[in-house]
What we know:
Shape: elongated
Number of strands: 2
Oligomer: single chain
Order of helices and strands: HEHHEHHHH
Number of helices: 7
Distance between the termini: 68 Å
Structural class: mainly alpha
Number of domains: 3
Largest sheet: 2 strands, parallel
Strand order of the largest sheet: 1-2
Radius of gyration: 28 Å
Strand content: 5-15%
Amino acid sequence: MMGQILWTRHFLAAQGEHIPTMTIYQDNKSTILLAENGRTSSSKRTKHLSVRYFFVTEKIKKGEVKIAHCPTQDMIGDFFTKPLQGTQFAQLRSKILNLPSSSSTAAHRSVLENDKNKGGSEEEIRLKTRLRKDKAIIGGRDGNSKL
Length: 147
């Protein structure tokens, strides 16, 4: 991820664009502390990390990127990487598609819900029944074929 961010930043800078500090959103506070402080915030469990993993710390200190906390339920990337259900799916879909969140949440129906109307509405049932009768008449199964 960091490589793509830096490449994009350098590419846009070469085109003459002013690039503000880019923000990386992270839902793990320990990762944020480790990235911002580097070796000073490492413990027994993180001492094994190689120096090359503190590349992000250098970029933060230079002001090229910053890391901000984002709650897990607001991580837009989860929409593409995790199976989401119900409200969280609808909220993230609304953000990605730039839809008003209130209308899309109300319109969403989980595929796991039990349908009360498995056959459809009354009108759908009447139409299906009529189509079946029409097919039977055209096919001559009732003995009174009109064709």
